[in-house]
Specification:
Layout (H helix, E strand, L loop, with lengths): L13 E2 L1 H30 L8 H26 L1 E2 L15 E6 L4 E7 L10 E3 L3 H6 L7 E6 L2 E11 L3
Parallel strand pairs: 1-2, 4-5
Antiparallel strand pairs: 3-4, 3-7, 6-7
Helix pairs in contact: 1-2
Length: 166
């Protein structure tokens, strides 16, 4: 059995203005607040003596590695992202940033907004532009029907509404 895993498909480089600000705030907080706190805790733990058996020191170093990894990722990702600020010329078609309401076969409705891969949140109705649902509805308009291939089977939706905010 091999440990090889094929590389994951690179996420789309698009993000909303709100998503960009959220990533910037996280990077700023990690760099200016969290990292200095953990660095101070590690320094205090190191002053206690034997580092090989010092749980606070070992855990603090692990936290620093995780923070540094996230800071590197966010710094690189923010450089490659493109902020989508304007609405499409045809606001009746589903594009990046669109809010939409979908009706399923049982008559239930779901409301989604298509956002970048770095800002999706299913609980808030924010789905990634790379998700199966978003890929199926892009370019569609009200009353179009789509079939979405999901891991547990296909799902049918009818588009009830499309709108853009801001």
């Amino acid at each position: 059995m091999s440990r090889y895993r094929p590389p994951q498909r690179k996420a789309s480089p698009y993000i909303t203005r709100e998503g960009w600000r959220q990533l910037e705030r996280e990077l700023d907080w990690l760099w200016r607040v969290r990292r200095p706190e953990v660095t101070q805790a590690v320094a205090e733990a190191a002053a206690m003596g034997d580092r090989s058996e010092n749980a606070e020191y070992i855990y603090g170093k692990k936290q620093l590695r995780e923070i540094d990894r996230r800071v590197r990722y966010l710094s690189k990702r923010l450089d490659e992202l493109t902020i989508v600020q304007r609405h499409p010329s045809d606001p009746t078609r589903i594009r990046f940033g669109a809010w939409l309401t979908l009706e399923d076969e049982e008559g239930g409705t779901r409301r989604y907004r298509i956002v970048g891969a770095d800002e999706f949140s299913p609980e808030k109705g924010l789905i990634s532009i790379d998700s199966p649902v978003a890929c199926a509805v892009l370019g569609k308009t009200v009353d179009d029907e789509v079939t979405v291939a999901l891991p547990n089977g296909e799902v049918w939706y009818r588009i009830q509404a499309v709108w853009y905010e801001g």
